[in-house]
Specification:
The complex is a heterodimer of chains A (669) and B (436).
Chain A lengths: L7 H14 L17 H12 L4 H14 L5 H5 L8 H8 L5 H13 L2 H14 L5 H7 L5 H14 L2 H11 L4 H20 L3 H12 L6 H14 L4 H9 L4 H11 L5 H11 L4 H13 L6 H12 L3 H14 L4 H8 L5 H13 L3 H13 L2 H14 L5 H8 L5 H13 L5 H10 L3 H15 L6 H9 L6 H14 L2 H10 L5 H12 L7 H10 L3 H13 L8 H12 L5 H12 L7 H4 L9 H18 L7 H13 L3 H10 L11
Helix pairs in contact in A: 2-3, 3-5, 6-7, 7-9, 8-9, 8-10, 9-10, 9-11, 10-11, 11-12, 11-13, 12-13, 13-14, 13-15, 14-15, 14-16, 15-17, 16-17, 17-19, 18-19, 19-21, 20-21, 21-23, 22-23, 23-25, 24-25, 25-27, 26-27, 27-29, 29-30, 29-31, 30-31, 31-33, 32-33, 33-35, 34-35, 35-37, 37-38, 37-39, 38-39
Chain B lengths: L1 H5 L3 H10 L24 E6 L3 H11 L4 E7 L3 H15 L5 E3 L2 H7 L5 E4 L3 H13 L3 E4 L7 H13 L4 E3 L7 H11 L6 E7 L26 H5 L9 H7 L9 H17 L9 E2 L11 E3 L5 E5 L13 E5 L2 E5 L7 E2 L8 H12 L5 H11 L7 H20 L3 E4 L4 E2 L2 H4 L13
Parallel strand pairs in B: 1-2, 1-4, 2-3, 4-5, 5-6, 7-10
Antiparallel strand pairs in B: 7-11, 8-9, 8-14, 9-10, 11-12, 12-13, 14-15
Helix pairs in contact in B: 6-7, 7-14, 8-11, 8-12, 11-14
Classes of the chains: A mainly alpha (669), B alpha/beta (436).
């Protein structure tokens, strides 16, 4: 997109105009910055229109006049209304000029125009709502060109005075098809104009006429219902009731739609009164409208919906069930609970959804009673609903149920205690943890404890309760507790986990190292490094180094720190696996500075391949940062060594591409 | 039904009329036996206007709905028409998708169609929507759904007048993360809201060009009906680039970087702060190309700040919004697994809050499903005409503020600026024969 304010062609014109019209400067904008209105600018734009300028320039001048033109521009713009090519842009300029002379010119133009320009001018008259043009427009309602009739009808509707409406009404009788639709559009606009002026009775008369129109399209009939109900000074409610009972679906649905625009209990009563007598499809519309009326705690609405929820066609029942939370009457809860057992899954699922959303503590009470009742299917549903509704006061009941066994209900209850509970539930959960013999239950309790520990503002004092339970716990529970401490984090937890590394049980010892290796913060890095340095066990050392090097990827570790950590690890690695871990971490440093750690491994057959990958990656990153900077000597040397020693053809090719041409060596071995 | 009297089957009648170039523009509704009746137990018959790249995405999404049948497409561009037909016929395993190039013929003839997907370029969104609703169709229109304040007003009035269902394609209003953000604001979890931030597209600018691309030979009308493509916009010579998406950045066709994403994010913000039925009242000019950091203010005192957010200061992703209150904030953009919040505890009730919203409003967490549900129930869509018009009015006013390079005040009741020159930019004369 060109953002220059004056393009070359305009510049040429501007120069020409400066000569012709000095001292004014013709500045034809090619971008949307709009200059302030000025007589000088307007004069120059008018001059463009009067010159032999191109269509593009004249169109641009019209566009600018639309925002700055005054009465001075009217004549020259009006003169273009009959120009097939420029007529539109002339209107574009004229339509927004706040001067009654524009209306005069548009009206005059009507006389001589045909086709597109005529349609356009009629449209502009409509936009400007020129009451003086009614006779001219009315005459065009009989025009043979449908588009002219449509434009005239819209314009007359916009004007909306008595003669305009009479003209439209006069033509309506006997009209058919698209002409009829055009006249209806005009009359709708007229009625809206009258309503806005407070003349509702006249507006209602128009809607009555549209309602009684033979063979009108559905949008006209429906729109007329709406207008008639809303504008009839007295009797709107009677009309609403009448159409709510209509066997004509268009009229009926228009009435329901209109009711949504009408607040108040009387409208609700009308909807309720209609409900029982309707066919199923119609009932659904009324039920949905009732639900959306926002009349919460309405016993009358609930009383009408509950029987429909219990019995009848499936689609009606689902609609009624889904509307119940919107009405939010507590009487709905027992019915919805009853419907959970419905043999039709569409009904039982809808009931479950609605129970989740139905408000009020009474509903919570019903759900907690379900949980206590002891039927396992119901209990699982109750737990799901407790979670969906976030019933925190249900946590003690959940704990009771959770203590009852290792079955699905117990596990679901424990999981929900984790989601809804807090530090107060730690003792109970810890008891379960240390007593549990079942690995599945142990895992669920562990997750529940983690969920609680990771909640915002979890008190450190409560965290220390976890530590206190560590020493006496059996190994499996101890391992779970260590993982919970890892989820909690912080210095106290870190100290406890470090101490557990020295546990005599192998399972606990290894779990403690693994927990340290995935610590949430870098605080565990030095612990792992020291453990690696001190370890006599190869597996432990590898595990510790893996964890230690894992921290080099943490976002808070910058390149310098990463390099320093890798240097420390370099002094500890022994096995090939450990070297590979080091090379992976050093390769991520993406700096030639890491080559001091990587390059030596090019001579180590066990890890040469990994070292070569790291060298080439660093080279490519270097080149990505700067396409022209000379390669540092250590990088050149390392790449040359890759070319020389690597047996990976792709890697060799990439290394050679990075090397300066004259330094490229013949393919290696 | 009339088809019995004429001996024509409904399908063969539709096939015939689809290829009748000189067919009349009006066929009685009853001839096709539907006449606007979409009862809850029937399928919704869908058509398309201007279905291109984005439109194909919408259409695939819509065709997944089991109660929807797409039957016909209208486009000035033959290659796009054919692409839609291929996609639809493959989906249904037949060759029934009918094609049209003339919108007036399409609207007049296909009285069997209940709803239209309108995914033209921006210039056609409002005029096509108005024409479609006037023809008795419900409309799902892509955004930005108006080029001027006057066009938006016309959409609102036509929908009411013809009792049509209309949804603009601000689909984030039907997504869980964005809904959650709006709901925690509504529920008061962020305290008193003072600022909301709305992402504007970080490319292009608020400046729009009036230039023309170099003229190219105009293709045959059946390949590309250039006059129809331009529609109500000022005439300019054909250049294929326009038809391939390069219409963006031109004043005649586009609503700038502000409209490109503001159509989404202003709608998000305005719905969140309870201003879906109004527009910002103050617009502070900013001396840059894009409107970045422009502060708009609503009558309730809440400021909405336009942000390109090139430094990802407020969100990470496209179409971001951020709501800031005196007790917390929430931010969300595309691609988030969960909204970002000032305190993690705010997220504890994520599922409940979204589910409660759905139960309370009946609005599905699927924008197209919400549209089809409303076609059946005749209730207001989540992105209804008023919401579209009011949020797009804020877009238009922000653009006008940038173009005039001065602060503006806007009266959403009168739909007027306090500035005579700005008022002249609320509307643009349409090229004949188009008019709404």
């Amino acid at each position: 997109m060109c953002k220059s304010t004056v393009n070359a062609r305009y510049f040429n014109y501007a120069c020409l105009l400066i000569v012709i019209l000095a001292p004014g400067a013709a500045r034809m904008s090619s971008a949307q910055t709009i200059p302030p209105a000025s007589a000088e600018l307007e004069k120059n734009l008018i001059a463009v229109l009067q010159s032999q300028a191109s269509y593009e320039d004249k169109a641009a001048a019209c566009r600018q006049l639309a925002s700055i033109g005054s009465s001075d521009a009217i004549e020259v713009l009006a003169a273009l209304l009959g120009d097939e090519k420029l007529s539109h842009m002339a209107r574009y300029g004229l339509e927004t000029i706040p001067d009654a002379a524009v209306d005069d010119r548009l009206r005059e133009a009507l006389k001589g125009l045909q086709g597109g320009p005529l349609i356009g001018v009629i449209g502009s008259i409509g936009v400007r709502r020129d009451a003086g043009a009614v006779d001219d427009l009315a005459a065009r309602l009989k025009h043979e060109d449908l588009a002219v009739v449509q434009a005239a009808a819209r314009a007359l509707g916009n004007i909306a005075n008595a003669p305009a409406i009479q003209a439209l009404q006069g033509e309506l009788a006997g009209s058919t098809g698209a002409r009829q639709l055009a006249l209806c559009e005009g009359l709708f606009r007229g009625a809206e104009g009258l309503t806005a002026d407070g003349r509702r009775r006249q507006a209602a008369g128009i809607y009555e006429q549209l309602l009684n129109l033979a063979a009108a399209p559905h949008q006209v009939r429906g729109g007329a219902v709406r207008g008639a109900i809303l504008t009839r000074p007295r009797g709107g409610m009677a009309l609403l009731r009448e159409y709510l009972a209509s066997e004509d679906y268009i009229l009926f649905s228009a009435a329901v739609q209109t009711a949504q625009e009408m607040p108040g209990g009387r409208v609700t009563d009308a909807l309720l009164a209609a409900l029982d007598k309707l066919p199923a499809d119609n009932q659904i519309l009324v039920i949905q409208a009732l639900g959306l009326r926002g009349e919460r705690r309405s016993a009358a609405v609930a009383a009408s919906l509950l029987p429909l929820a219990r019995k009848g066609p499936q689609s009606v029942r689902v609609a009624a069930i889904e509307a119940l939370p919107q009405v939010d009457d507590p009487a709905a809860a027992p019915v919805l609970i009853e419907l959970l057992d419905d043999s039709d899954q569409a009904i039982s699922r809808a009931a479950l959804r609605s129970l989740g959303a139905l408000g009020g503590p009474q509903t919570d009470g019903h759900i907690l009673a379900m949980l206590k009742a002891g039927q396992s299917d119901r209990q699982l549903t109750a737990i799901e609903l407790i979670g969906r509704r976030r019933i925190e006061q249900g946590v003690p009941v959940l704990l009771e149920v959770a203590g009852g066994g290792e079955g699905p209900v117990g596990l679901a209850a424990i999981k929900m205690v984790g989601e809804l509970g807090g530090p107060g539930q730690l003792p109970a959960l810890l008891d379960m943890l240390v007593r549990s013999q079942d690995s599945k239950k142990l895992g669920v309790v562990e997750q529940a404890l983690k969920d609680i520990c990771q909640k915002e503002n979890f008190p450190p004092a409560d965290g220390r309760k976890l530590i206190d339970r560590l020493a006496p716990a059996p190994p499996a529970a101890k391992c779970a507790l260590l993982r919970v401490l890892g989820a909690w984090g912080g210095p106290d937890a870190l100290g406890a986990v470090r101490a557990a590394v020295d546990d005599s049980a192998e399972q606990v010892h290894t779990t403690a190292i693994r927990v340290l290796s995935t610590w949430k913060t870098i605080d565990a890095a030095d612990v792992l490094r020291d453990l690696a340095a001190a370890s006599e066990n190869d597996n432990d050392r590898t595990l510790c180094l893996r964890g230690y090097l894992n921290f080099t990827g943490y976002p808070e570790v910058n390149g310098e720190k990463r390099l320093a950590m890798c240097r420390q690890a370099a002094g500890l690695v022994r096995r090939a696996e450990e070297k590979r871990l080091l090379l992976a971490a050093a390769g991520r440093i993406q700096s030639p500075a890491a080559l001091e750690l990587i390059a030596p491994y090019l001579d180590d057959a066990e890890v040469r391949a990994e070292a070569a990958v790291a060298v080439v990656t660093i080279g490519e990153q270097f080149r990505k940062k700067s396409a022209t900077a000379p390669l540092p000597a250590e990088l050149t040397g390392a790449l040359e060594k890759v070319v020389q020693l690597s047996d990976n053809a792709d890697l060799t090719r990439r290394a050679r591409q990075l090397l300066p041409k004259e330094q490229a060596k013949p393919e290696g071995r | 039904m009339k088809q019995k009297k004429t001996g024509l089957s409904r399908r063969s009648f539709l096939r015939q009329t689809a290829v009748m170039a000189a067919a009349p523009y009006f066929v009685p509704a009853a001839a096709l036996g539907r006449d606007g009746r979409v009862v809850p137990s029937e399928r919704i018959v869908l058509g398309g206007i201007g279905v291109g790249n984005r439109g194909s995405f919408d259409l695939r999404w819509m065709m997944q709905e089991p109660d929807v049948q797409f039957v016909a497409d209208c486009d000035a561009n033959r290659s796009r028409r054919l692409a839609v037909k291929k996609m639809v016929d493959e989906r249904y395993g037949n060759t029934d998708c009918a094609l049209y190039s003339d919108m007036r013929q399409f609207l007049a003839e296909r009285t069997d169609i209940d709803a239209l997907l309108i995914t033209t370029g921006d210039r056609w969104h409002a005029p096509a929507s108005v024409m479609a609703m006037r023809a008795g169709k419900d409309v799902y229109s892509e955004k930005p759904s108006s080029m001027t304040i006057a066009e938006g007003r016309a959409v609102v009035e036509t929908a009411r007048r013809c009792r049509r269902i209309y949804q603009t394609g601000t689909q984030r209003l039907s997504e869980g993360n964005f809904t959650f953000a709006n709901e925690i604001l509504r529920l008061g979890r962020l305290g008193k809201i003072h600022t909301v931030r709305a992402h504007i597209a970080p490319w292009d600018s608020a400046e729009l060009s009036h230039n023309w691309l170099a003229a190219e030979p105009e293709p045959a009308k059946e390949e590309m009906d250039w006059d129809e493509w331009l529609g109500p916009c000022p005439w300019r010579p054909y250049n294929a680039a326009y038809t391939r998406g390069a219409w963006r950045g031109y004043y005649d066709f586009h609503t700038s970087c502000i409209g490109e994403w503001g159509a989404h994010t202003f709608a998000q913000c305005q719905v969140a702060i309870g201003a879906a039925d109004t527009s910002a009242v103050e617009y502070g000019y900013v001396n840059n190309d894009s409107g970045d950091h422009m502060v708009t203010r609503f009558a309730n005192g809440i400021e909405m700040v336009l942000e390109r957010d090139m430094e990802s200061r407020y969100w990470h992703g496209s179409c971001g919004v951020r709501y800031e209150g005196d007790e917390g904030w929430v931010a969300v953009a595309d691609g988030y697994s969960k909204p970002e919040v000032s305190a993690p505890a705010l997220l504890a009730e994520f599922k409940k809050i979204v589910a409660d919203y759905t139960a309370r409003t009946g609005c599905a967490m699927s924008h197209v499903r919400n549209f089809f549900d409303c076609v059946r129930s005749r209730r207001l869509t989540v992105s209804n005409p008023v919401m579209m018009h009011r949020s797009m009015s804020t877009v238009h006013a922000a653009n006008i503020c940038m173009w005039l390079k001065r602060d503006l005040r806007y009266d959403p009741v009168k739909e007027e600026f306090d500035d005579a020159q700005a008022n002249r930019l609320r509307t643009r004369a349409m090229r004949e024969p188009w008019g709404i």
